[in-house]
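Weekly structure sync, notes
Attendees: PL, DS, HV (note-taker this week)

Item 1: ROK family transcriptional regulator
DS walked through the input record. Source organism listed as Novosphingobium album. Sequence as pasted into the shared doc:
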Amino acid sequence: MATMFGNLSLSYRQVLDAVWRNGPSSRAEIAATTGFTRPAISQIVQELTNLGLLVEQASRKGQRGQPARPVIINGSAAFSAGVNFSHSYLEVALVDLAGTLIATKRTALERPDPETIARVVRRTLDKMIKAGGLDRDKLLGVGISMPADFSAEGTWLPHVYFSELRDPAISECFESILGTAVILENDGRVCAIGERVMGVGNAYRTFMLVHIGHGVGGGLVIDGRPYRGALGNAGIMGQYYPYGSPRPSGQDLLETLKGAGIDVDDFDDLERLPDGSEVVERWVLRAAGQLCGDIARVSRFFGPEAVILAGRLPPSITNRLAGAIDLESILRPMDDLPIPPLLASSLGSSAGMIGAASLPIYQSLLPNH
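Item 1 (cont.): predicted structure, written out as tokens:
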């Protein structure tokens, strides 16, 4: 995907990636991270600075010899948009080139078909760009978090609740209406990217994310980068919980609440539930019991620094669910190896739209597959 900055070579992307992940970096630090020679780094940094992608900070003092002049990503050089949607609403986030959140907005959605989604996103995006005084020409693109997996042919396999997304021309529909480059990605992986950019995953280079949404998905980040697997389905855990039986999914929670006579239609309704709901507490204990063993075994095989529980549930429920999952009860009888911490997302549903907004940045400027 060519951008306003051209089609950057892999070496340029690796330098941007080192600065993007590590923050202000001297040329010596970039050389140590990438393995390139100092002269090569000096040349690449200069050219990236000329393109407006990097800017120099004030020299670091207190060092011997010539003071180091660290460089940082120029966040104002461009921005991208991300979309996360459900049955009746969608959320849009704007993120600058450095991965900093600019603005978010939630908008009602009449129905989740491609054309309706695209038109609502277009109207919402236009309003956000105008309100923020942003230059639309600096928009890198739009990332969209999809409640779907991939077939062996690489086509979308939408969640059963989103049959209208089973459209082979869905990308073309979005791009035609939005008038910009569009990148679609699985919602669990998008959420993992959001955690890597601005959430608790920022402290780790390798982590596993369990995504509680319409289904039970997930995402893997290895050495700071999202891992897709051969077909794009790496990290998904839903196959452990067959349809037709109680599942530890957000959709299952909605149906459980409806069955108990509680008026909820979509995930945003969960934010208005009173604390201490007995129905929610029973669901949390049941879901934690279902998830615990599978998370323990998968995490032991994968070997992450941390496991993050995230998705579409409000933080209050995610925190209670994370607290009820006791990996030690499963893993300690098996071995004495270190147990990765299980952390609740601090971003709530924002991780989805932030991760989606990061997709054009990854695709345009950073190393990717």
